[in-house]
Structures are given as C-alpha cells and as structure tokens.
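Supplementary Methods S3. Complex input for the 2-oxoglutaric acid-bound model.
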Amino acid sequence: MNTSTILLRRCSRISVNCLWTFSKLRGVRKSNITSSRTTLQNSATVGCMHNVGRQFSSVAETDSRLPLCESSDKDAEDVVTKNFKVIKNFINEEEEKSMLKEAETYLKRLRYEYDHWDNAIHGYRETEKSRWNDTNKAVLQRVRDAAFEPGVPQLVLVHVLDLAKDGYIKPHVDSVKFCGSTVTGLSLLSSSIMRLANEKDPKQWVNILLEPRSLYIMTGQARYDFTHEILKQEESIFHGKVIPRDRRISIMCRNEPT
Ligand SMILES: O=C(O)CCC(=O)C(=O)O
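Predicted complex, serialized as structure tokens:
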C-alpha cells in the first residue's frame, strides 16, 4: 500500500470527492475510526467525567481508573467507554525510542504537509511500513494481540503518522471500504487529545487523553458512528488544563474491511 491508499482510507463518507491518491484510510474525514480485551494489566478503560457547562461530575471512576476522558454527556460516554480502550504505558521508553528510530529513517526524507487536498490533516507526514526490525516487530505483535481477536484478517502495512507540533487531524471516520472494525494506535512523543463526536449529533462528544507510549483500541460504534480527530494546540485542553502539544507520532494497525 502506498500513500494513495492511506488517503483514500481517510476520505470522508461525507466529503465524497476523494482523490485516488494517498488516502483510503481516513474514510470519513468530515469537515467540521476494538474489540477490547479487558485482561491486560495497566489498562485504563476510559474512566470519564462529564463536562457540562464546566461543571465536572465524576462518572464511572474507580480508584484504579484515571480520568482519561471527559464527555459532553452520559450517552456519548457510555458508547465510547464500551468501544474505546486506552492502555497506558503499553510500551516502555526503550521500545518507544526503538520504534521512533526506525520510523524516523523514512519520515525524515519527507516534508510536513500543510493545506492538504482533502483538508483533513494539517501539518503531517506519513508512511506505511511492512518491514520492521525484530524488536519493533515484537512490539507490533503485542499491539495486534491486544487489539484483534485471533484469526481476524489484518492489514499487513502499519500506518505511521507524524503530526508536527502545530499539526492536527480534523473530524473523520475511517473509510469502511478500506478499513475494518478496529483501529489501534500507539502514541509516541507527545500527549494529545483525541475527540470522538457523534457523527449525527456532534454536540455529543468525548475527549480522550492519549499519553506517550499508550495504546488506544477503537472499535464498533466508536469507530463507525463517531468521528475522531486530534485537537490542535489551541484546543488542547482537558479537564480545564492545557495539555501541551508537541510533535506526535502514531503507529496504527487496522483490520481488513469486512
Ligand atoms: O493519529 C492517530 O492516532 C489517528 C490517525 C487518524 O485519525 C487517521 O489516520 O485516520
């Protein structure tokens, strides 16, 4: 798969005019993408806080859960907590460095792109990789084992997306033509906030804090019925606190479309 397939995945169900270059991934990139195994340790299945009119009320929190998300309302939160999982510290710092090093060998040859044709991502460069060194292969296998049930056909290529400090991803749903029910991603380098919003009613939203070295697993309704985006620096506020954005690299695996 080359750059053209990534873009097509990203083309929005809504914005139909996808060029046949570089973007199958992001199916619905709307202007204005899990089956989760619960047995993994250190997994913080989003414990959420409603944020209505800046009155925070704690919901579904237990001592072992961190408030990794905030939401507009309970309905949105219910859907997302069932279909979106964050596993903190899925990889250690050494593994992070190793993934970065290998991704960087290719990324450094690319320029960050702005004003992209589909207006979907701002300030990014990306690639898809099938060959990884043995250390990183083992990490990716752990990712796949955590996200996909045994036997689920998966896309062989791993998507590497490098967002600059001022980069951001607009709301979209990954194309159902090019991507199956589950999207899983390792976040490297910088924290960021992923916002999921109900496609039919964007007032229903959930913000999820993605910390470096964490893994998210998005599936089902969160993948199909909610758009996802990575908030830009100016909007990167979580529970009233600024989450500084810096360069962020995500390493994503997906399953094949059904
Ligand atoms: O960077 C991420 O974690 C999400 C990327 C994304 O939304 C996409 O490639 O469609």
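The CA atoms of residues 13 and 32 lie 13 Å apart. The domain at 30-254 is CATH 2.60.120.590 (Jelly Rolls).
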